[in-house]
Write a structure and sequence with these properties.
It is a single chain. This protein is an alpha+beta fold. Helix content is about 65%, strand content about 10%. The protein is built from 13 helices and four strands. A four-stranded mixed sheet has the order 2-1-3-4, sandwiched between helices. Helix 7 packs antiparallel against helix 11. The longest helix is centred in the middle third of the chain and has 18 residues, at about 90-105. It is globular.
Length: about 260
């Protein structure tokens, strides 16, 4: 992520926080819809992401497109996004999507674990190749994928989780669906003031070990850290922990590979 995108995303997130009282689930879904409309038009995306176009001109274009049928809060947030400088066109689209995910997270009760629901669904998807293909293949229609999400999650997960997954399968932009859903869970956790640690192990950890690891990581990061396990036999032994960009890799496979590199050098 380029520095321009980091600054733009920070500004958009701050604006979302400032209007939190007016944000609801519909705000998130409107941001998702706006992102899809912008992403489907190369000319529109180019105009809104062009640093040479005046912010006032971009705001006029946003209001012309979304001023009717979208809430004032959504239009205000889109104004903030397009007024900022992004490192690339794709980053602008990703920024709108992340803002939508955060808005959806805002609308959920504090007792609701959307990040947990997302991660559990991601694990189900990545463990079933036929399901991952059905949700991520370019051959299936968007409506078929959205319908499949409704059948799989409707009545089993919160409407917030369904809205986020529905967006991800509708506009994957070449990304793997399982990884996308896991990434969305980290955004939701961050919005709630916590972090998600993806722990990759060869065999499931006991609940006691998970509790100890969560406590240790919470102490290190000084925010609540929740563990999501990924079972991968190729890890061989030990554990690989990823929190955002931080990676702690103590697996046997990695240590062997490091040794090989040392010997080769």
């Amino acid at each position: 992520m380029g520095s321009a995108t980091r600054e733009a995303l920070a500004g958009a997130t701050a604006r979302l926080s400032s209007v939190a009282g007016a944000v609801d689930l519909a705000t998130g879904e409107e941001l998702f819809a706006a992102g899809r409309i912008i992403g489907d038009s190369s000319h529109l995306l180019a105009a809104l992401s062009d640093p040479g176009v005046e912010p006032a001109a971009k705001a006029t274009l946003v209001r012309r497109l979304f001023g009717t049928g979208y809430s004032a809060t959504t239009v205000d947030l889109l104004d903030t996004v397009v007024a900022s400088r992004w490192s690339s066109k794709n980053d602008l689209l990703a920024g709108i999507e992340e803002l939508g995910i955060r808005a959806v997270a805002f609308s959920a009760p504090s007792s609701m674990s959307i990040d947990r629901e997302l991660f559990e669904f991601a694990r189900a998807v990545t463990s079933d190749s036929s399901l991952e293909l059905a949700l991520g293949s370019k051959l299936g229609s968007t409506e078929q994928k959205r319908g499949l999400v409704e059948r799989l999650l409707g009545g089993r997960a919160s409407e917030q989780t369904v809205a986020i997954v529905r967006q991800l399968v509708t506009q994957p932009r070449g990304r793997r669906i399982g990884e996308l859903i896991r990434y969305a869970s980290t955004i939701v956790a961050d919005e709630a003031g916590s972090r998600v640690a993806t722990v990759t192990v060869a065999a499931p950890l006991s609940s006691d070990r998970i509790a100890r690891l969560e406590k240790a990581l919470t102490g290190s990061y000084r925010v609540p850290v929740r563990i999501n396990q990924v079972i991968d036999p190729s890890v061989v032994g030990g554990v690989r922990i990823q929190i955002g960009d931080d990676v702690i890799d103590g697996s046997v496979a990695t240590r062997i590979n490091d040794l090989r590199l040392q010997l080769a050098g």
